[in-house]
Amino acid sequence: MKLYRKLIAVITLVSVFSTASSAFAADDTIREVFTDAFYGAAIGGLIGGALLVFRDKPADHLNYISYGAAAGVLAGTAYGLAKSARAFAEVGNGGIKVAFPTITPELIVSPVTKHTTVAWKADLIRGSFN
Question: Could you say which DSSP state residue 114 is in?
Answer without folding.
Answer: -
